Amino acid sequence: MFTTSWKALGTALVTGGLLMLGSAPAPAQITDAAPAGVTAQAKFRNLTDDQVRELRKAIPRSVEYVESAIEDLEDDPESNDYEQWFGRWTENRYDRVLSVFERIGDDAAYATYDGDCDKNLQAEVDAYRTNYIWLCRGFWDLSPTGDVSMASVIVHEESHFIANGGTEDYKYGADKCERLAEEHPDRAVRNADSYMFFADDVR
Prior knowledge:
By secondary structure, the protein is of the alpha/beta class. It is 41% helix and 8% strand. The chain has a five-stranded mixed β-sheet, covered by helices on one side. Strand 4 (123-126) and strand 5 form a beta hairpin. It is globular and about 45 Å long. The model is unreliable at 1-36 (pLDDT under 50).
């Protein structure tokens, strides 16, 4: 039974590889306060001040990526971007994709981000512990925004939560996700990386 995403995400995903990094983040701090604005309700645990600053750049962009995805889906349901990442359009599959993004909404702004993860991964979640995201060693190698960024990975992880649709990790990386969309669209609409790449493309 799927409960947790333990896979490597991010730049290494383009080739489907496991991202192996060197040193772990700096000694942990606990930071609960956030500035006014989009990140005001987010919680930060076991993170350095520098890491929190990076997250405060990424979180608003992640919310914007989701908003743009919803807007794109509503404006052009059968777009090339939809077909590229989710395959041939059907009403049921489209409804599922839109529903996942709508349920994610602005959750990133209210999530708890915990740096207590020393694995050679980028992030992990317990799918039943909504809006709690562990950030691992590889996460800090990413840019806060842009393609396959911190903001993108947050979208990927948010899609895993059962409350948001409970996506799986059938495939990683752009090439494999495009092939999944072409050959197995029913799986593509349940694949976390497919949501991440779609959101990256339409942001």
